[in-house]
Amino acid sequence: MLGLKRGTVKLIADHKKWKELFEKEKKTLLSIFEDLEIQIEHVGSTAIPGVLAKPIIDMMLGFSKPEQTEIIYKKLEELGYEDRGERGVPGRRLFVKGPEEKRTHYLHVTKIDNSFWQEHIIFRDYLRQNQKGRDEYNKLKQDLAEKFSDKRELYTKAKSDFIQNIINKARTP
Is residue 9 in a domain? Predict the structure, then answer.
């Protein structure tokens, strides 16, 4: 199952198709941006085996040349992505795919060298290597999903301290 109504929270166990769906979308994006220097990463819970996740593929498209941003934004809209703006995160632009009743993809567009990019990679990589961290994250997510099943913004906000703690832990040698 892929897709979730905007504003709701429903978690499902690791779905073997998520990596495949990410790779398919990445291939599409790379073919459209073949003349630009970009990177595409699978992030968020669907990128971490064993972590419960909303069935929405979370991706980042990173660029290093700011003069390419308007080209990137235009091509994404032509591909069917909806531009949702910065949404409170300076230096990042959120694009979504799928109707409001069934969002299927989130694409965060940002510079490769900024903290948004780096922290998403750090968090993903740490949890991929740390079973205890995955277990703690799953417990937190289950509790919050029950509490905020129809208030995704509150669900997301309530995870922020845990996420920041993991990032800080991962940066500590």
Answer: no
